[in-house]
Amino acid sequence: MFSKKITDIKKSSLKIQDPKKDLATRVKHLKVILYNFEHIEAKGFFEANFSHIYQILYESFVQAEQNLRQKELTFHLVQRATREELEVALWILEQVLVLLPELIHKRWQLHSLGRLLSKILHAGNTARLRKQAIKYFLMWYQALNENAPDHVHHMFASLVAGFIPISAIGGQTTNSVFHDTSSQYPVTPGDVLPILPAQTNETDNKVYMETLLEGMASTVVKLEWHDKEMHQRRSFQFLLERFQIHYLPKLCPNFSYQTSLYKPILDLPTRRKAESENEFVAYRVILIKWVINYTQKRGDGGNTQSSLQQVQDDEGSEQSSLDGNMSLQSVKTAPSEYEQAAQIVRDVLWSSRDNVNFIHELYRQAFLLNFDHIVAIRKTIAMYKDIIQKSGSDMPPYMLEPVADDVARSDDGADAMRPPRLRNDSYLGAIHKENLLVRAGLQNVLQLFMTHAGNVFLLEVNPHLTTSLEEQTDACKRVLNIYRYMVMHTGMDSETWEQLLVVLLQVTSLVLGENPPNPPKKKVSTLGGKLAPAIFQTLIVTWIKANLNVMISRELWDRFLHVLTSLTNWEELITEWSKTLETLTRVLARQVYNLDLTNLPLDRLSEQKSKRRPRVTSKTENCNQMVSTESHPHQVERQDSSAPEETVVVKASKPGLSRSYSETNLTKRRMPHRRALSLDNLRQQIDTESVDRTRTPSPAPSSGLESTSIKDAPIPLDVLSGDNHPQDISGENRGVVCGGSVRGWLPDVAVILWRRMLGALGDVNEIADPHLHSQVFEYLVKLVDTLIKIKANQGVSTDNVSTPSPPELVPPLTLIVPWCFGALNLSSAYDSGKINALRLLCIVTINCDPHHRSYLPHFYRSLHLALSGTSRPILNVTLRYLGPRFLSLQLPGSSLLLLDLVHSCSSVLNSSDLSEATPRSEAISILGGLLSMTDNLTKLSVLRPENSINVLPCPDIKEHIVGIVLRTGRREPTGMARCIALTVLGHFVYREFTNESYSSLISDAINVILQSLKLTNKVIAQLASNTLYFLCDHGVLLWLHYPRLADSIIRSLCHALFLHTPSGPTASENEKSLSTSLLLCLGEWCMKLGPQRLLVASEYGESKSCLLLLVFSVLHRMLRTKSSEYTNLSGLVPQQNQDDFDSHISLDNLARGSSGNTKTPQYRQAIILCARTVLSHLVTHLGHFPMAIGAARLSSLVVEHDDVPDLNSDELSMDIFAAPNIQLFVLTANVIASLVELPALDLPGGGVTAGLSTADKQVRVLLRDLSGKASWDASILYKTPEMYKNYNQHRESTASWSSTNSSKWGPMSIMQHESLCPVNIGQTNIQQRAMRHRNPSVLPNTENSAPDLDQLDDLLQYLGHTSPECLENGDHSLNIPAVSPLDTDLEAEAIGSVISERNIEIEQSRSMQNSNAMLGHPACRPESRESDHLSQEVNSQQSAFQQCRLLFSQLGLAGWERRKQLHLLNKNERLLRELKNLDGQRCRETHKVAVIYVAPGQEDKNSILSNQGGSIAYEQFLAALAWEVELEAHTGFLGGLQRQGSTGLTAPYVASSFMEAIFHVATRMPGDTPEAVLNKTRHLGNDEVHVVWSEHSRDYRRDIIPTEFCDILISIYPLGNHLNRVTINCKPDVPMFGVLFDEAIIENSILAGVVRAAIICASRAKRSTLSFYQQYYEERSRSLETVVNKYRNATTYEDLIARVYIPMTMPSAFNVGISSVIEGDGAASVGSNSSSTAAAWLDIMHNPHKAGSKEYAKFRDGRGVWFNNVDVSQNVESTSISPRPLKKLTSLKNTPRRSLRSETTGSETPPQSPNQFSRKK
């Protein structure tokens, strides 16, 4: 096979060499040879046979030319035949040029090839052929190199038309190229004509320029030189030089050969006009793009390769091939040739200083282009961006730093000594190595770029050409982004920093020098308007970073200051200044005060700060992160201050999300942990470590830079070049800005730059635009707030174990005070700025340290003018930011402003402006604070409220203030101010009663509070109720001095209940809270006044009934759920509104829950339950509380087994169910009663029955209801001692009389009943009719009655007379007897029989009266129980429950009308557990409160909780707050405290009949060990209300003792002068509760009472927000309901009475034994005691001998029904007690126990009464 191939090649070679062969055959065999040979073999073959091959080429070309010029051929034939011939010729030409460069270099066939190429280069040929010919020519031209003659150079210059004159174009002219030419027969060349003329006029020369430039690079690698590497670079250098000679002067007429990267000329750019467009400008753009495409080396070279590939594809698409291998690509080239060509171009362009300067001058030319060629400008900017951001091996060699020798040579003029071109071998070899001479260094490149790039800003563009303006804006943004990258990530020396600053100042002053367009909407039509935010930010940040790295001269700082102060009419400058200053403030906080504003100690410790902890990124991770580029859009989040400035932490984001938000799209969606990368956004994200965040988000999160054209990146200002606190080697620790050598942030550097930036705008009061002036002061307000936050976080304990020492440095709050005073002197046009200036003065004065308030006289003057002026906004701002806190400062001389404050507060409260800008709440709070101080201020002089300075005394200031507060309480239209006014009035009344001064305005104040109870606003009405509850402490004094007011309070509360209680079956949460508050307040007032006052007939109002009746009536009405039952009560007259009282609230600014108005039946039931509790409470405890055991116990401790003989257990047990003298009942649905019969107790001195004659037994009644458990001991009272003495005398006389009259009839009882006394014993006839009658028209009654008048007879007569229609017969009256149906004889016989029977009964009665058996004994208590044998005999026969039965009957409980509510209980173990649980439940409202003492200098938990005592004032406050009780003996609420002493020995405790509160005082608990401190923390932290007495200089923070509770924090700060500042800090969900308001000033005398009432009201308010919280009465109600529903025994009336007769079931054959009663299961065991129990018991008592006989066993069934089993139908009446017809019941032996239980327990109502049943029959 191989031998055959070789043979074919040899044959083909011979045929090629044979001139006799035709042209087609030789071409064919030439193709075969090239197809089988490699490049080297083909080159050898061509060199050996170059003459034969050139002959083939020439003949092919001539033949193709001749054929193309034949006129007779049709166009179709030309297309098919001649084009193929021409392509074959061109293919052979290409092979010759590629494979024979050495021969061509020796001018082989110079003229012939030149002639041939000139033909195909003819301008008349087709564009495709010309572009192909340009590449052939470039291959020939570079092969000739220096040997090319001039005409060839002219051919090169004419490849693109227009660069040389047409006359200069041509080949050899006069001299013949042939040696045999004579003068006689000269040989002259023919005219050069087009071979393949174009069909159309193709005149676009830009295509040929692009082909020329691309061919210069691509053809270099095609020629097959023997020393290929050397010749390729030399060839391209040759082409480049010839291009510079022939084309560059026309392409760039302003080309500057002085541009040097090695000695840069840094002339600042100036404004210029746009260049006129021509074709050479387009060629220049093509040249720039070509240079950039080859010099901008991408990571994989893909950019260059793609551009070359695109050109090649274009050529391939236009070229038709002869066959599969006949095309331009038929030369065996690999794709790597494109990369090789690009590398050759770069090597040559970067190989010499001339070339390097050439390309940088081209870059400068790109920056000078018009913006119609924005693509070239963008490519240039992108190229600079790439080389600036690259490092290491990817950097161009000219960016490497030169070595010392090279620098010296360069400085000595090496450029001048160096030849323009190097042609020797040493140069060619040096191309492949690193050329040290081209090194210029990064700084030169940066300086050159920043200077040249400034030209894009200064081209004057017609603003009407929006496209050009947008393109210029885009280019400027790209340049600015590179500037910013250089600033943040590139190391620069001092010259580079200064050059960048100079360029930016030049650009800023020229671009923004003109005034901004007005209106602002026109800003988008100018370059300055579009770029102002970006330029200002870049300039300011560059200036800051330059100061951090190098020493900036004073002249440059002055120029910077001059530029900024001249541009203060730009709002963008003000905005950027504010944001930069905000960033510098963060740096200042970290460097000087060691605080991170994004992670402050207070924010970390606060429980209300729910912030996700940032991810911690290590320094190693930071250093490994790469800077993002446009091809990989990453978002720079933040840079750690400890990382080098060349590195930055980046966070990848999705492509397409890097677009920055502009100022007009603030509402666009923001990612929670990602922000748009813009110049405005200097803040670092919280996804990485936040120790060095630089900028908070600005109001406009973008500076207007659109990331579609540039890459927006934040500029962190606080990036350090090294460690956080870098140290110089020499030990110097001074920054470069201070003359040191340490770069980066240091405390002194931060202070200097912060103060310089603060003053960068100059005097802010010289800003001409009032709007911008106001904007500056608005930011100053934010700045001061930040400084105050820094001050508050200084000295904060981070570990909460120890308090740090006070800081040495504090933020300079007063630094801007001169600006503020200066602003107040401006005209009215600057009112907005003046308002902010006054606001700043107030804020600074309140928050700065006392020794810094040296400006107080000026401040007082400003306040005086503001408070007495006519400007309402200034007045509002002054009062809002002074507030009551100003009063608690007690500044020296501040009392001069008291009248000004009163006047201004009155003005605000009288205004009709209800907007949020009006400080109505602050005004009334200030008046409340002044009211507490008026007793000490009546003798002081104050300023008159006018513009002049006049001083006058004001002795009646107190009455004046109270009058304003009264007016506010009556007519204030806003809810919050009305509430504060009511609270202030409450304090005033409480103070007057405490101090016993009794002002004449007390009545008015109380009347305003009472009138507020009827407001429809539930919150205000509830607050008024809480205020009355607060005043209840002085209820007795109020009744004593103002009885009418006390009466009005009770009636007003009753009326408010009647008014606000919902009448329907549902209620809202607000109605529930209000009604509950009113009920508890009413109960407290009733208990405070007592029965001796409530039972007195009222002297006021229409009804003269007592107040207690009114209270009970209202409470009774509240228990009804039907609205129809709500009728007005007598004595409940609504209080008439005063003329000036406004019940309408126009602005309800009280915070209430959204679900407060949702009505549910549960809320209505809660109101009813609370009313029932209060009613029960008053019935039980009114007049009894507190009892002898003290207020600590409200509910009785007595239980059923106490004092019962033989029951000695310590707690309730099952024995009480077996006792015969104990019975339990259900009286009502909420009352469980126990009756216990006991022996009379021997009490010391006789107890309460001393001297009385009572029974030897007593009855104990125990009631368990909603109000708790109550116990009464009752006994039968026989006689008083006086009555007993008279009775003894009467008994002696009676005994003597009876002995004389008992001979026949026996003794007569002196205790006869009147019905048994004989009347007219001797009379045998009874009157049938009366002797006389009344007048028929007179109604019979008791007044006109008489013994001889018949009442019934006269009544019938009256009815017939007055109502004739009632008469059956008109002739007969109703009193006339009707005709008897019997005859006269029978009627007389019947009457006689009746009279005879009556006489017999009378006679029998008379005979029995004298019988000893019927003689009664007087009821009296024996004188001695031991000696009175008669009494013992009687008692022995009585039942153990006899006294209880008597009381049960006397109370009316045995009546049938009470049967529906009265029930027995099933006695079992579960009932016992329920009773124990019920007795253990609380029956009062309980509160536990934490009280904490903070000594001076304490600000951590450990030191605060270690306090074992407090100051004298603190101890006096505790003593007034509550009673000190010993925990060991305390029987009341303990709130978790232990009696054994682990939580202290004593604790403050306070109680009323409705509530009790224990105070967890930190100083009372042990705190000497860590375990004790932890235990103390647990107790304090679980309390809802914390009271803090702080003597520290700073306010107490709720996070010092971290807890999930502490919903209400009340802090007390003693001020001296018997005054205290009280603040309230509530969680957002706590509703307003009154009694106190924030920043109140309270006197010592009323402080404890105010705080105590506020604690109770606050705790109630918090609990009202808890979804599942239940009041104590709700819990007791549920327990009582459980007992009643589960253990109620539904028995018949007979069973009930039987169990009342004997509580325990007697063991007999007719009922279940006591064991079964006790051990039985629920109702089943008790249900065995049937309706015949009473009958069985009576039968047993009459027939005791039959009790155990077997005969009676058959008469008992499972239910114990008593009947005669022999004959039921005949003996029902004789054997059954009940008249009901008896039913035959089956035995229960076969009945399942489960069915029996369900049957007996399912009945909720008792069976019908037998009497009722008989009536139904």
**Sheet bearing the most strands, described?**
8 strands, mixed
Structural class: alpha+beta
What is the strand arrangement across the widest sheet? 15-16-17-14-18-19-20-21
Strand content: 5-15%
Oligomer: single chain
The rounded distance between the terminal residues' Cα atoms is 138 Å
The percent of residues in helical segments reads: 40-55%
Q: What gross morphology would you assign?
A: elongated
Number of helices: 66
* C-alpha Rg (nearest Å): 58 Å
The total beta strand count reads 22
The unreliable regions are 71-77, 169-182, 300-334, 407-433, 611-713, 719-731, 1294-1329, 1421-1438, 1707-1817
- In round numbers, the mean pLDDT is 76
List the helices and strands and how they pair.
Layout: H1 2-17, H2 23-36, H3 39-48, H4 50-68, H5 75-99, H6 101-105, H7 110-120, H8 127-144, H9 150-157, H10 206-218, H11 228-246, H12 248-251, H13 279-295, H14 302-318, H15 336-349, H16 353-367, H17 374-389, H18 404-411, H19 414-417, H20 425-430, H21 442-453, H22 466-489, H23 494-511, H24 527-549, H25 554-566, H26 571-591, H27 601-605, H28 619-624, E1 634-638, E2 649-652, H29 747-758, H30 770-793, H31 817-823, H32 831-847, H33 856-868, H34 872-882, H35 885-889, H36 898-910, H37 920-933, E3 941-943, E4 951-953, H38 957-971, H39 975-995, H40 1002-1012, H41 1018-1031, H42 1035-1041, H43 1043-1060, E5 1067-1068, H44 1069-1089, H45 1091-1094, H46 1107-1118, E6 1159-1160, H47 1161-1181, H48 1215-1218, E7 1222-1228, E8 1231-1239, E9 1253-1254, E10 1257-1265, E11 1268-1274, E12 1277-1279, H49 1281-1300, H50 1351-1362, H51 1384-1409, H52 1429-1437, H53 1442-1450, E13 1463-1465, H54 1469-1480, E14 1485-1494, H55 1501-1505, H56 1512-1521, E15 1523-1526, E16 1546-1551, E17 1555-1561, H57 1570-1581, E18 1585-1590, E19 1608-1616, E20 1619-1626, E21 1640-1643, H58 1644-1664, H59 1672-1687, ...
